[in-house]
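[stage:ingest] chain + small molecule (zinc ion)
[stage:ingest] validated
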Amino acid sequence: MKLLRYGPAGHEQPGMLDAQGTLRSLTGIIPDLLPAHLAPQSLARLAALNPASLPAVRDAPRLGVPIAGTRKFLAIGLNFADHAAESNLPIPTEPVVFTKAVSCLQGPNDPVMLPKDSKKSDWEVELGVVIGSTARYVEEREALEYVAGYVVVNDLSEREYQIERGGTWDKGKGCDTFGPVGPWLVTRDEVGDVQNLDMWLDINGVRKQAGNTRTMIFGVATLVSYVSRFITLEPGDMITTGTPPGVGMGQKPHPVYLAPGDRIRLGIEKLGEQAQTVHGWQRR
Ligand code: ZN
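[stage:predict] done
[stage:export] tokens:
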């Protein structure tokens, strides 16, 4: 099942994508796609609906973040060995956990705005994990049962803020518009083996990142179990799980960063695609 939210920012309505690719409204069924709808029994209720019985949304509306009410947007750093190498950093012995501010969440195709005076804004295609049930000290072998589904995330990052300004990475990770999520949440049953999904990202039509979730250092089950020993994971929380090589910081012979007018396209097998245009900073 592919669950989504559509409509103007702040006024999204719940929907699903049917097997033919038609957007179907869930407005008559649920008020919005909320964390409470991600529990296994709630997902089962939505899955039991006949999509053809739901109103089709004919125009191509803006898509929002697929889930409303996310309270934590956690992230894993350096989770692909090749990306750690291009970052000139050692392969972590335990997952690197940091936070992206929930205020950076936005729809999958909303414009990306560079932070004020940013010179080193960068891209990162990532698999996002959406939590469906409260997870505390869960064992690795049962960890996936706490996952509702998966999303594409662009973990946009300001490298100067992240690396050169002292302290933790969080300063370069939570800038406004730095968290496009979607186009939809694909439920776990529809994804199959989450550790074998191709992922890619293009800048202005040129392939920059090409990877596969099979080369993660720490897989999804390990990450959910690991994080749950430190932070209680709640329905609607997201963990974005690290990026393969090919970020701007790792380009040769010298790094390349985002500039106004750049077009970003990214996607993950079975999870759909995002497209963003980059804009300069504007007060809002
Ligand atoms: Zn990342």
